[in-house]
Amino acid sequence: MATSPTTPTAPTASTAPAASRTGLPGAYRAVLRAETRLFLREPGNLFWIVVFPTVLLAILGFVPSFREHDDGLGGRRVIDLYVPVSVLLALIMAGLQAMPPVLTGYRERGILRRMSTTPVPPSALLGAQIALHGAAALASSLLVVAVGRIAYGVRLPGQPFGYLLALLLAVACVLAIGSVICAVSRTTKIAATVGSVVYFSMMFTAGVWVPVQAMPEALRHIVQATPFGAASQALDQATRGGWPDWVHLGAVAAWTLAAGWTAVRRFRWQ
User: Fold this and answer.
1) How far apart are CA 167 and CA 170, in angstroms?
2) How far is CA 143 from CA 87, 99, 117, 234, in A?
């Protein structure tokens, strides 16, 4: 689980000047197309973001006790709790393990600096990476929910709009935190190291090893103040049919704003 996804090796800056001749919107689309091709050529990224969370859920589902109702969990099963956890794991893989090394590598190799000399701003590359990793995380989330429902009879979110809101906030939060890692890391090695520390911390607070609902009360209150502890609770509440607690949604939103502000202030193109 600690293995980091691979990063693209081919730069895309060379596509910017040609794309810019069609206008800035066309240039943005050209950069997005180029980055999409590179992203899809990396089986490591696709596996760890899209496939691995579902594989983990499937493996956990083979444990007989995880499929039994537990009075200590309000009559729910452990596998029911691990669907939102696996959803958050997909987000963490995308935002903290996959994206930071890519953007840091582009900056380290001077690709962003070269793009700054063209009519296409480096933000086109940043936006493309955020869009791709966000889309991959959402696709993985959909796959996890579908497999949980089909294979183990896990109920679909009883409050779909609340679930979607919590999910989108969590996606924005993890990408903002990933952008902070990019901002403070001068090299890909530093990005990988910082990303791994944050990655394991977020895995714990998301409930990968112990679901948040099964944690001791004192620890649960602490974890709920973290972005993915709060997101886990919000997703779980929406799954059970209630609107997510605004305290949990607010915590995720606050972390998103703080991380986004830090990333904007600290990010350097070269």
Assistant:
1) 5
2) 9, 21, 41, 19
